[in-house]
Model the fold of this input.
Amino acid sequence: MPRIRSLSLAALAAITLSACATDVGGYVPADPYGTQSAPGTGGGAYGSGGPTPTDPAPADETPAADAPAANEPALIAKEVGNLGTVVTDAAGFTLYRFDDDTADPPNSTCVEACAKKWPPYVVDPDGTLTLDGVEQSAISKLRRPDGDIQLTIEGWPVYRFAADPDAGSTEGQGVGGTWFAVTPEGKKAAPAP
Done:
């Protein structure tokens, strides 16, 4: 039976990392962010875009805290499709990581057009994060260029795929050879052989 933990921001130690600017210009596949158009993404629980993809996010790494709905886990580790155990949000939507981001230091390069197709999983810095099957020590956050606070797992910024039609979908797995469902350890999920 998975354990459910609730973390308060006061219980977590603050960690501050300074970001190194990364030039990600030059990667311009036909559609580097996915092959499907995003249904309306708006701001909401997953935020909005920011500066252009050549302006990476500064990493302001501090422990994360937020719950999208009262008494529901914000992050759940569970078996999804043939990918094994991956992390989903409270609604059951698969969360992803992007190979063009960095984990050390944590940095998100998915902004503007990218962030519309891959909405960042943003959190309330003063909220409470509830975990089910994800270790507290794996969770932190960073400040995005637009000011939103994005959740990280083992330093990797996490996102939803706007074209995933419903909970449990994994349409974003392997898109562009750079997007992968994220495991509770921050690794890329891979289909079972």
In short: Residues 1-59, 61-71 have pLDDT under 50 and may be disordered.
